[in-house]
Amino acid sequence: MPTLAPTETLDRFETIELLQAYYQHPPHYGSLSDATISLSGHTPGCSDQLTLYIRLSHAGQRIAQVQFEGAGCTISQAAAALLCERVAGMLVSDLATLDVWALLPELDRGVLVSRIRCATLALGLLKVGVASAAA
């Protein structure tokens, strides 16, 4: 599995290669038995489906771990795997301002912009899930 420095910028070919690697061998795939939150969603007008399993720590202030299960296009599933990898340890309060470009800064925007709903499905679910737990 390729690893990246957060400041590395990938071209279109490298972005597609990275997304395919995460799609074919997704880290953090599977349920999480001690999840604090679990929720499912889909991309309207598309076949993308995800279930996120989120475990919070520090009195619900920090994301301890995120796992996912799902089916759909390469972008939705790879973005979910990348999200799970990158938000572990993040403060819940930091989610409010997090967008797909901050979460995946090294990816070529041209690849994601035409499939932005697919790319943001996991992030949207995470935000909804954490907000519902705080309410």
Identify the notable features of this structure and list them briefly.
alpha+beta, Sufe protein. Chain: A, 3-stranded antiparallel beta sheet, 41% helix
Q: How would you explain this protein's 3D organization?
A:
The chain has a single domain (28-134), classed as Sufe protein. Chain: A. Helix 1 (12-24) crosses helix 2 and helix 2 (74-87) crosses helix 5. Strands 1-2-3 form a three-stranded antiparallel sheet, with helices on one face. It has 135 residues and is α+β, with helices and mostly antiparallel strands. The chain is built from five helices and three strands.
What is the CATH class name? Alpha Beta
Structural class: alpha+beta
CATH fold descriptor: Sufe protein. Chain: A
- Average pLDDT rating: 91
Distance between the termini: 37 Å
Largest sheet: 3 strands, antiparallel
Named at the architecture level, the CATH assignment is Alpha-Beta Complex
Question: What is the structure about, briefly put?
Answer:
With 135 residues, the protein is an alpha+beta fold.
